Amino acid sequence: MPFVILDRDGVINFETKNYVKSPDEWEAIPGSLEAIARLCRAGIRVVIATNQSGIGRGLFDIDALNRIHKKLIRQTLERGGKIDAIFFCPHAPDVRCDCRKPKPGLLLDASNRLGEPLSGIPFVGDSMSDITAAKNAGARPILVKTGNGLSTYTELMRKKKRTFDVSDTFENLLDFVDDFIVSEHKN
Fold this sequence. Notes:
Layout: E1 3-6, H1 32-41, E2 45-51, H2 53-56, H3 62-78, E3 85-89, H4 105-114, E4 122-125, H5 128-137, E5 140-144, H6 149-158, E6 169-170, H7 173-186
Parallel strand pairs: 1-2, 1-4, 2-3, 4-5, 5-6
Helix pairs in contact: 1-7
């Protein structure tokens, strides 16, 4: 069964400068949970891969992260969707690890757990680290203009030599999902 990997902050929920540290601070971007539900109805599994360096920085703990993810899962279920797995990197940027994006560890873990190769699998993100992680893992990078996505898109457009196909850019997760489901049914 096909799957899609999503970044969390800036793709599914609004991002904050001071990190999403509690369920009260977690707020879905309009349309994002419906997008996940549409993927599920189309038979596509949904996986999340997210850097959560607030844990490594001591801003919140694993219990708070679990409560945030419970809210995400509950609200997704209420709309008819399902999150198959959540992979996260808890490390601060100064820690050497293989899981912090742009390194491919989270995506490779998802591939191994699901028993599916990453070739052609979309990884939807809003930052250069997401695009780079997708490339490093052999997945298909997709950029959405929510979260940091608009500034990432602007940065990409300024580059003379682009290493990312900007045609794989969408206004938001729902726009990507609608396009992806149509293209999946053509194949």
